[in-house]
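Title: Comparing notes on inverse folding

I've been comparing how different people in this forum approach sequence design from structure. To keep things fair, I'm posting one structure and asking everyone to reply with a full sequence. Here's the target:
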């Protein structure tokens, strides 16, 4: 397998937002060459001149440290209903927002990108008619985006299986169905962005069958240390590795079983605001890289 190690830039949100700073941390301190850019660092809703300035700063700083922006994704502040919003006008706005995001990321080098599939409100989820209508709206939205992504030079789009039914794809079967529905009429194929720590349907909380079934369909996989039935987004440091269920050997074995040929393993690690952890973020990320580096050389 041709696997590469990288990091989702969610760790930088409100902490290391300067392009020069997160690029330095990733390239020099973590010695990583691949990042998944996140919308929260450059929201398309921002004024155009500011976006242009940021694009140039990002391109300069990533070039300086030899970093490749392989993909783009939504993150903490953009975890919203978007393409499955109950209001038609909101869905239209978010469809354009995704087009803007994909265009920005393409200029940074991204060749795939996406988000969670969509989120239903409780009112929509509890009403069978509304639920299916909005799922179909989500499918149509992703199909339109797939043709736009092709124009931007993308090779695929990706969506992330989430932990509860309202946020979509919380079983392997539902994930496959959503992917197939989009791919019935697509510009570039819809693929999956697995997260090894998501705690979905109670019958499918073991992450390894997910990797075995969907690993070959996941050009990007989020890595976090976690416990069964939870999604902790812990770093891979000794105190958490003793408790955690994510082991590099097991992940790679499951990926091989899936038929995976190549992919990006991206750390998606969160440090919640606490005095005991806020000053050790980079240290924990470095330890996480060291923990995985014997298994993924690039």
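Reply #1:
Here's my take.
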């Amino acid at each position: 397998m041709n696997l590469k190690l990288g990091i989702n830039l969610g760790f930088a949100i409100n902490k290391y937002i300067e392009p020069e700073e997160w690029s330095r941390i990733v390239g020099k301190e973590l010695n990583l060459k691949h990042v998944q850019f996140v919308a929260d660092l450059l929201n398309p809703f921002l004024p155009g001149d500011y976006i242009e300035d940021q694009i140039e700063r990002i391109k300069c700083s990533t070039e300086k440290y030899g970093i490749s922006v392989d993909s783009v994704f939504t993150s903490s502040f953009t975890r919203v209903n978007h393409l499955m919003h109950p209001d038609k006008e909101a869905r239209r706005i978010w469809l354009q927002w995704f087009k803007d995001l994909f265009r920005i990321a393409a200029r940074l080098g991204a060749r795939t990108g996406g988000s969670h599939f969509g989120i239903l409100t409780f009112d929509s989820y509890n009403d069978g008619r509304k639920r299916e209508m909005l799922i179909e709206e989500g499918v149509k939205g992703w199909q339109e985006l797939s043709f736009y992504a092709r124009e931007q030079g993308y090779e695929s789009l990706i969506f992330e299986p989430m932990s509860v039914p309202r946020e979509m794809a919380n079983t392997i079967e539902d994930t496959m169905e959503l992917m197939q529905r989009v791919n019935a009429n697509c510009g570039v194929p819809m693929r999956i962005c697995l997260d090894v720590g998501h705690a979905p349907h109670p019958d499918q909380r073991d992450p390894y069958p997910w990797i075995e079934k969907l690993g070959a369909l996941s050009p990007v996989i989020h890595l976090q240390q976690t416990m069964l039935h939870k999604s902790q987004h812990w770093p891979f440091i000794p105190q958490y590795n003793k408790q955690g269920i994510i082991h590099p050997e097991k992940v790679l074995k499951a990926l091989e079983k899936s038929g995976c040929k190549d992919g990006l393993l991206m750390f998606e690690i969160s440090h919640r605001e606490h005095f005991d952890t806020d000053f050790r973020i980079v240290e924990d990320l470095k330890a996480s890289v060291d923990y995985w580096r014997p298994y993924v050389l690039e």
